[in-house]
Amino acid sequence: MSEHHANYSVFSSVSSKEEALDILLMSYEALSKEQTNWVCNLANASSLLWHAYTALGIKVNWTGFYVTDKENDTELILGPFQGKPACQTIIFGKGVCGTAASTQEIQLVADVDKFPGHIACDGETKSEIVIPIVDLKTKKTLAVIDLDCLELNGFDEIDKKYLGELAKLISASCSF
Amino acid sequence: MSEHHANYSVFSSVSSKEEALDILLMSYEALSKEQTNWVCNLANASSLLWHAYTALGIKVNWTGFYVTDKENDTELILGPFQGKPACQTIIFGKGVCGTAASTQEIQLVADVDKFPGHIACDGETKSEIVIPIVDLKTKKTLAVIDLDCLELNGFDEIDKKYLGELAKLISASCSF
């Protein structure tokens, strides 16, 4: 597909969100082929997310992952991401990420200030989407995909659909 | 030190490289306080590196980590980073990262095209610095810090000194 791994982040020619997110899913599959290491795969996935959304003109300020802490499965711990430094741990049920982790339901938040108990790692964040990554066998929450946006209403039903697909690909491809 | 974790990335007022890298070291210590999870700490460290060098006007296109693969200790595997997607694995001794990992010596490369066996994850990279992170007890290579720059001669002796300090802080603070 490309001579250099960095070329997977070329989303500049896309004409629609669907097309960009289709390329993102295909790029993730290519980069995770024969590779089950979750840190490696999520590090590249956070980069794909950053470059896909930035190319779409969506002002993401954070794209990345929190994973269920192996030493305490009632907490999420910071995983690979792109953006500014972030909170190290989040308790299941707290804030947008913790709610997605405990309910296993996608959280689409148009205005984070209206979300009860929102945890602000970055005061500039206005909207957010968090997608649970669930173990297909045990049904436990493995991790969450977290995207923050500097504008209100940064994400919609299309993001829900495609990022839900990404969560399934990650669950199937990674050993956590 | 700051209300939001994202504020640790504010390097905009710095007047010199030494000052920025001093703040980087202090920020890493603050963010890794009472936290030994290596993924969490290296994810925040890659963000600090990106924002410190970008604020200094140094055109970094990749800041992050490769770690010794627990399943094969003759290979490095991709860790947390900021920048475009990257090569998943690097054999010890190969390329700039592999050489730093096998020799445990900092590799300061003014022109990557002149480095024998350079592995190009991104064809745009012109110069690079790679710093080994060594286990203080076993003396084994735990990981490497890798910074790529879009310009020749992107890094110098000051980077060697401060990033060498960061490598020691990481070795002391993280359970790999």
Query: Structural class, from secondary structure content of chain A?
Result: alpha+beta
Shape estimate of chain A = globular
Top-tier CATH class of chain A: Alpha Beta
Measured between the Cα atoms of the first and last residue of chain A, the distance is 27 Å
CATH fold topology of chain A: Beta-Lactamase
Tally of strands of chain A: 6
Which range does the strand content of chain A fall in? 25-35%
Please compute the radius of gyration of chain A using only Cα atoms: 15 Å
Low-confidence stretches of chain A: none
CATH superfamily of chain A: GAF domain
Main sheet of chain A: which strands, in order across?
A: 3-2-1-6-5-4
**Secondary-structure element order of chain A, N to C:** HHEEEHEEEH
The helical percent of chain A reads: 25-40%
Structure annotation, total helices of chain A:
4
Q: How does the major sheet of chain A shape up? A: 6 strands, antiparallel
Structurally, how many domains make up the residues of chain A? 1
- The CATH architecture category of chain A equals 2-Layer Sandwich
- The multimeric state of the shown protein is homodimer
Largest interface: A-B, 38 and 38 residues
Mean pLDDT of chain A: 95
Protein name (chains A, B): GAF domain-containing protein
Family (chains A, B): Belongs to the free Met sulfoxide reductase family.
InterPro entries (chains A, B): FRMsr_CS, GAF, GAF-like_dom_sf, Phosphatase_reg/MetRdx
GO cellular component, one term (chains A, B): cytosol
